[in-house]
Amino acid sequence: MAKKINELMKNLLLTRLFIRELKKERRKIFLTVAGIAWGTLTIILLLSFGQGLATQMLRGQKGLGNNIVILYGGQTSIEYRGLPQGRPVQFFEEDVELLENSIPEIDNIAGEYDAWGAVYKYGDKVVNERCRGVSSVGYEDMRSHFPQAGGRFINENDIKYRRRVVFIGWGLKKDLIGDEDAIGKMVFINNIPFTVIGVMQKKMQMGMYGGPDENVGVIPSSTYKGIFSRNRLSRIIYQVNDIDKSEFVNQQVQRVLARKKQFDPDDNNALHYWDVIKNTKMTRQAFTGITIFLGVIGAMTLIIASVGVANIMYVTVKKRTREIGIKRAIGAKKATIKIQFIIEALLINLSGGFIGASIAYGIIKAVQSIPQEGADFGKNMAMQILANPEFSWTVAISTGTILGIVGLLSGYFPAKRAAAVDPITALHYE
Amino acid sequence: MIKLENIRKVYSTGKVDVEALRGVNLHIKKGDFVTVIGPSGSGKSTLMHIMGCLDKPTAGRYQLNGQNIQHLNDNQLSELRNREIGFVFQNFNLLPYASAYENVEMPLLFAGVGGKKRKEKVESILKKVGLADRMDHRPNELSGGQKQRVAIARALVNDPNIILADEPTGNLDSTSGREIMELFVSLWEEGHTIVMITHDPRAKDYTEKVVTIIDGLIES
Prior knowledge:
The complex is a heterodimer of chains A (430) and B (220). Chain A is 55% helix and 15% strand. Chain A is of the alpha+beta class and 430 residues long. Chain A folds into 2 domains: 209 residues, no CATH class; 209 residues, no CATH class.
């Protein structure tokens, strides 16, 4: 026990000696610490911005839809049971019901009507914009039509009682109503009065049909059919409960509709699928690849910096040969010499890592705090995508681990050489 | 105290083997002050390295304080150098970036001597060699004689059994050289065992016993 305490004391004394001696080599410390700090900064920034990029891209895709497939009717291209090719395939609300009832993997489904150039009027303001009718409340989640505080999306009763209520995009709201509170206001669509029940939360939208959702007005399908005198759906949107099943669900949809609409199930032109799920999966995979790539680049930078540390440590061993000889002569053990060099390398690596990580953290926080003028699609999307780095502890910890390992390695080999210095030769070394 | 029996040392330099020591016998008793003289290349430095446990003989027996050093490993030899031997070199071999105090402190750090005790020892020993007012000076701020005093203080600080001095006056002017020799004499009078290697003929005037080494053999 006493011996152990003595050993510990001894090691503490030696560590203090090592730190004292390291302090004498300002230039070496400055250069190597700067190298490691740079490597750490690079790896953390690369991974953080990469992660942010991936998140933003996925968010942008979610702006279009959350695990959805958008289904369009096409034209048959194969003769089927005596029916000619070239017949258009059209959707009605009964088709939506049919799909919902026959395919359990579908979580949410909605038919959508789309009218171009509806005339919106509020006071003296007149705006020409699109108007959509939707047949299900699930549309809110599927198409990320989330209301801002104080408002709501279309509900079951709105659809059931053909209420004249409208949910509007934030762009349309601004053009039509301006900065006032919109909820409860009366607007006219094609001269028919509607009550505004909600304004869409701003979102980033990277895929779209017809135009961005920010400029659209959404009303219940039942109401829509009444004003626009149409019962043909523009498209059907459905959400799949398991994203790995989208392919299967699409096959089911093809099968069910082929029977209903009398076309060959193998006809690839009868229906068009915009599989957003597939896009999301591909984006995810692409970004996993990009993250690995960036990580490797960062790790390389760090390793190069560590090679620099090892190199300088080697030079130091050479420069300090005589010092090592003196210490050996007055009783330093090989292990003591070795530990000294390893501790120096570790201290350099870890303090460099700490400085690099702190700077990276600062940069990331600074970039995150840059105010982003609205979230308007298109105008500054590049900024939105790039300027959202995410500082993650996973990145920080793995960087720290890499640093520890390369630090040990960059110290170990020079230390081995230092310990092997022959004291007699070293004492006469000038 | 030191007992060398038929010590041989052969250096292999590739093709040729050089025999630096060819069977040296030497007894040094506690309290001796021995001067080893000899021309350069005679093997006196090799002898000193072996006595100082920096090097092992190729053949022969070396007993230090009754302990056979042939069988000790590197760690044990390091501890022995730390505790039993104090080196004084011709070129001082002080650490250039460390103050006089820090240079003298170092053997105590390797020995694991802590806090207050270490401070007392360093200060008293520096006082003893007359450098009480130069403790914070670095080697390049000290004269040659002062540097050698720091080196002697460092050699003494762990209370070694033997002080090995390799040409301690070789780099000094005659006045400083004389002062250093007087310091050695006073240490000897205190009871320290000192072995000094030199080719300075004046040096032997101070010592009681002179050993001459020529071509790897002791002439008696």
